[in-house]
Write a structure and sequence with these properties.
Distance between the termini: 20 Å
Shape: globular
Number of strands: 21
Structural class: alpha/beta
Oligomer: single chain
Strand content: 25-35%
Helix content: 25-40%
Number of helices: 10
Length: 383
């Protein structure tokens, strides 16, 4: 069994920071952690030993919402998915939920099956996220309006069957016919239901959360904003204390001070996500997002027709850096929002998002500026 030791680190996990800390991986699990020189005890010949030299060591980042990267999209098959994963793993994302944009039901079935096959061979792929087609037309963002629809029992069952148990999250506008039944069916199947791309008011959103929905897709974007007499779905999510709020911390989707507001309103329940599209880690230019054309200029992605923001070119390491430097979060808050909080949102609080014995051997080594210097996933060196 391969053994890896990383020592002399500022280890951030579970809301705390330990100085001169070490962690030991055996196979794909954390076997032990501590402080000082005890890491030297029982090191087998051939073990990989890394001296962190006082740098930050965090759990591997978990991204609940990722469409693409490296010029490729999760919608485009298994080879494209491999490119997406490699792009984000180099930036510290060790576990990924691959997101699919709105398409025909037959296309979504095919793509869910492709992700299921990848997840069966790669434990770092957590499964899929359907961002559509059960969205609101007026708040659709970068989704094909011709393919939007209300949920019905047959379609819900087709999508669940196609995913073969790997559908982790689905975004739904709760105000439309059939949404209540869909929320119940998906939650029964242990799929996290997210509200998003929705015109729902506060009361409608709160009812959906009380009925089992547990995530707010990219809070503040694709929904009504906060008004002092009409607080909308963001405040409903803050009130429902089981709900995780996704935030795209790229400085484009949400102002840094509004990011700080989200953390204050829902402490411990904000998950940093990328919502990354194909241009992440690639050049500006013309890209496709599902069936729609996107122009990327200065790293900002917008639909060619209409100019709506069309995902991001964000990576989780940059999101973490912005959360600390621009939004003023503590390193412990920011790390939790990229690790343990998203893991908990999809039911993996027991084995992902912390550097503790028994948890997955996923870790990121960061310099003082929070730039990635090393990545391990399931005990293997990834970058």
């Amino acid at each position: 069994m391969p053994v890896t030791v990383i020592h002399s680190a500022r280890l951030v996990s579970g809301g705390d920071t330990a100085l001169d800390a070490w962690v030991r991986f055996e196979g794909d699990r954390v076997a032990a952690r501590g402080v000082g020189d005890a890491w030297r005890d029982g090191i087998p010949a051939g073990a990989e030993v890394t001296d962190a030299a006082g740098r930050w060591l965090t759990p591997g980042f978990v991204d609940l919402h990722c469409h693409g990267g490296g010029g490729a999209s999760a919608d485009d098959g298994e080879d494209a998915i491999a490119t997406v994963l490699a792009t984000h793993r180099a930036h510290g994302t060790t576990r990924t939920v691959l997101s699919l944009v709105t398409a025909t039901i037959a296309e979504l079935e095919q793509r869910l099956g492709e992700i299921a096959r990848v997840a069966a061979s790669d434990p770092l792929v957590l499964g899929s996220h359907l961002e559509g087609p059960f969205l609101d037309h007026d708040f659709r963002g970068a989704h094909d309006p011709a393919q939007l629809r209300s949920p019905d029992a047959e379609t819900v069952d087709r999508l669940l069957t196609a995913s073969d148990g790997t559908l982790r999250q689905i975004t739904i506008a709760p105000e439309h016919d059939g949404a209540d039944d869909a929320v119940a069916r998906f939650t029964e199947a242990r799929v996290a239901v997210a509200l998003g791309h929705t015109g729902a008011d506060f009361d409608t959103a709160l009812r959906a959360f009380e009925s089992g929905a547990s995530i707010l897709t990219h809070a503040f974007n694709g929904m009504r904003g906060i008004h002092h007499r009409a607080p909308g779905p963001v405040v409903a999510a803050m009130r429902a204390d089981h709900v995780t709020l996704e935030v795209i911390g790229d400085g484009v989707h949400v102002h840094p001070d509004v990011v700080r507001l989200a953390f204050a309103g829902a402490p411990g329940r904000v998950a940093l996500v990328t919502d990354a599209m194909a241009a992440t880690g690639a050049a500006d230019g013309r890209y496709g997002l599902g069936s729609l054309d996107v122009d990327v200029r200065d790293g900002v992605a917008r639909l060619v027709e209409g100019g709506a923001i069309a995902g991001s070119t964000l990576t989780q390491d940059v999101a973490l850096h912005r959360a600390v430097v621009e939004s003023g979060l503590t390193i412990e808050e920011a790390v939790a929002s990229a690790t343990s909080t998203p893991a908990a949102a999809i039911g993996r609080a027991h084995d992902l998002g912390r550097l503790e014995p028994g948890f997955a051997a996923d870790a990121v080594l960061l310099d003082d500026d929070l730039a990635v210097e090393g990545v391990w996933g399931a005990g293997r060196r990834l970058a």
